[in-house]
């Protein structure tokens, strides 16, 4: 949750230490004011910290004037942050009202774990429900990634009610980690409801030996119903590029700092490789923004949404998966990625979700239809020992045996 919007929270902040070694509790809300609208759910889970969130209903406000009547509902977000927790440990939490949930902290070192990823959960509640029901049969999940477009309109509280009705029970027991889609409209509701690392627009976190990076392909809110041509113009604007340039600088430094991770998994909403021909220019802009850095650091897996189906491509060492089948109306598969050197591995026109298992130097992605039938599975090799090897050799002045003088004859 951004600091700038914390005025929306109850401004009572109490922090107290219990005995050393015991978890420390920080709260910026008062429990019990108004019925619970969403939650409780778990956010920003790390190896030693986690945040319990719940949202209470406020009053409804009707604004009239200028031949308009606008109804908006107030709500309050409550967060309680726990720290000094133990890594890789299961915790349960319970509100005073009796509502409860659980979560497991991140492992402090390389470990075996499973997470799921899906995207574009907007617009069709029943379809989203089928996908979530399928995911909840997949055993213990470390977290859930949503690749954006959680709701149809980020500032519409009714859309969030529909989203939480479906995803809420999952979010009570699993860290739910989204990135921004165009339909979130950069609305304050998104930043209020999710507590994520960094400034929440883009961020990274580690889980076991894997480094996860969320990027943002949505610098500006694109108005509803904007024609594709105008959207494309916005995408190639100077303003957009300046935003991407700032993000590129952060992205490259972040990967450099984490180049020895066993795996690097990057996720963002608009894909670089996609079958949808009307979005070719947008795909190109995103490739221009992030493609060279992904190649340079041998990123193993890139996850996207925006196009409502399943697509799997491979370019060099990197696997690219579009997992935009979380509930939104399904799009046709049109053709391949339309870029030379990009291999099409699998395309499927259906709602779906992906399960990713990490164990040692192996990362396996298995995609499923909501009923649990398999779409495909593939394994990715760790590039951990090979990332930026040229740069490292340059830094140490070449291989040690190259520096050795030949024995005198
Ligand atoms: Fe989208």
Q: How are the SSEs placed, and which strands pair?
A:
Elements: E1 14-16, E2 24-27, E3 36-43, E4 50-65, E5 68-83, E6 90-94, E7 100-104, E8 113-118, H1 125-135, E9 143-146, H2 157-173, E10 175-178, H3 188-193, E11 203-207, E12 210-214, H4 228-235, H5 238-257, E13 263-267, H6 280-296, E14 301-304, E15 310-315, E16 318-323, E17 343-348, E18 353-359, E19 362-368, E20 374-381, H7 389-395, H8 400-403
Parallel strand pairs: 8-9, 9-10, 12-13, 13-14, 14-16
Antiparallel strand pairs: 1-2, 2-5, 3-4, 4-5, 6-7, 8-18, 11-12, 15-16, 15-17, 18-19, 19-20
This protein binds fe (ii) ion.
Fe (ii) ion (FE2) binds next to loops.
Give structural attributes.
alpha+beta, seven-stranded mixed sheet, disordered N terminus, 22% helix, 409 residues
- What is the distance, rounded to the nearest whole angstrom, between the alpha carbons of the first and last residues? 70 Å
If strands are numbered along the chain, what order do they take across the biggest sheet? 11-12-13-14-16-15-17
The average pLDDT value, as a whole number, equals 88
What does the radius of gyration come to?
22 Å
Structural class, judged by helices and strands? alpha+beta
Can you put this structure into words, describing what you see?
There is one protein chain. Helix 1 packs parallel to helix 2 (157-173). With 409 residues, the protein is an alpha+beta fold. The chain has helices at 125-135, 157-173, 188-193, 228-235, 238-257, 280-296, 389-395, 400-403; strands at 14-16, 24-27, 36-43, 50-65, 68-83, 90-94, 100-104, 113-118, 143-146, 175-178, 203-207, 210-214, 263-267, 301-304, 310-315, 318-323, 343-348, 353-359, 362-368, 374-381. It contains 8 helices and 20 strands. The longest helix has 20 residues, at 238-257. The model is unreliable at 2-21 and 25-32 (pLDDT under 50). The radius of gyration is 22 Å and the shape is globular. Strand 8, helix 1 and strand 9 form a beta-alpha-beta unit. The site of fe (ii) ion has 6 residues, from loops.
